[in-house]
Amino acid sequence: MGIRIPADQWAVTGKMDKLARKSIFSRFASRAAFIALTAILLLYALTYGVTQTTITAALKSSVDTDIAGLADIYASGGEAELLARLKDRQAMVSSEGRRAHYSLAKKGDPILSGAIGKWPNLDPALSEHGYVNLANGTQVYARATRLSNDLSLLVAREYNGESQLLLRLTFIFLIAAILIPAAVWLVGRRAAAGLNRRVTAINRLLSSSTQSAEPLADIHIDIDDEVGLLARNSAELVTRYAAAAQAQRYVTDQVAHEIRTPLLHLDTRLRKMQEQPGDQFVFDGLKDGREDIRRITGLLDSLLDIAASEARRGDMSGLKVINLSELLNNIADLYEASIEEAGMMLSTDIAPNVTLAAEEMQIGRLISNLIDNAIKYAGSGTTLSISLAPGPYLTIGDNGPGIDPAIRDGIFERFRRGPNSAANGHGLGLALAKAICERHGLNIYLQNNVNGCSFVIAAKGADDAI
């Protein structure tokens, strides 16, 4: 059970798509894999270091024990006994697999060398030790010591087994460094994808401006975790908001209709009273009263139109492709006489066959509002220009006095009127124009003109910087 959002009503903005590509869940999966790799490398370095230290200590202990035993043999049996024992030992391999190598030199001349060959760079006077290479390239751990003033002994141990151990250790950690971070990344990515889908659904739910109380698409509100709680609270909030907005629209529409109907009845009565013979003063009063009624009903009609357009903002259903070029030419022809009567000139530059998915009546009203504004405020002797380019990119402007910079930022707000506005204006014309544009997925903005005033209507995504 749950609240659902129709997928076809999800209005995902470019900003949300960009945020999805920078998802914190994806970054979390990548960072988790990086932390796993770092931990494995640190563990490898620690393990390798401890193992290497242990191997070196074992080799050093083995060599030192051997030297101590050989020193005892030399002390008790002399040089000949030592040489015989060295030859025997050189043919043996220890239980650990470490083959021993020996070199005995007297006054720098080798008596017994074997595989060691040239004496390594280890000073017997200092009893130096370390890793060296034999003549055949085998790596050994060796120690040189002086048995007497003219006799030096070198004992070495191979550590091929230990080297293989370190190699296997490196190979195991290399496999682990590949598999474990990859597994962490895949598992984390899968979990992150699920979380990202849930959070994206919540964001779409909250960002949509056309939500209603209809059944909503599953956003996993039944999962008992933090995101599930957020989803439940968000869904409940949107449901309450949608219900409140629907109730508000219903009430305002009903109030507007209820007010409009008696006003029309009152206008009819006043018209009938005007038709009766009577005093001119009463006749003029009735005429003014009817004008007031027409202004009020016009205000209500504009508010209803704005509300209807805003309620269907971004909803492209029910729109048909119209020839915007033909519509503009027809409207320009209809207004030609009014423009001449106002002492203005008309200039048109309308590209042919520019189309738009729209409600033709609403687009016609949008264009008419902008032309009416120009006729009202541009003044005699000015030029009204209408241009249309593919896109569509529509410009309606004039070279009149323009709009006061102090009110430019709020010209599309309801009831916003300039100081020189006509007395019978309501300040709703541009607000309605903006609502119609948003209904059709268009942008409208005021161009920066040195002289006059130009309104631009363009498809969303076009460069509309003011």
UniProtKB/TrEMBL annotation:
Its EC number is 2.7.13.3. It is found in: Membrane. It is an enzyme of class 2 (transferase). Residues 254-463 form the Histidine kinase domain. GO terms for molecular function: kinase activity. The chain crosses the membrane at residues 28-46, 165-188. It comes from the Bacteria. InterPro entries: HATPase_C_sf, HATPase_dom, His_kinase_dom, HisK_dim/P_sf, Sig_transdc_His_kin-like_C, TCS_sensor_his_kinase. SUPFAM superfamilies: ATPase domain of HSP90 chaperone/DNA topoisomerase II/histidine kinase, Homodimeric domain of signal transducing histidine kinase. The keyword Transmembrane applies. It catalyses: ATP + protein L-histidine = ADP + protein N-phospho-L-histidine. SMART domains: HATPase_c. This is histidine kinase. It comes from Sphingorhabdus arenilitoris.
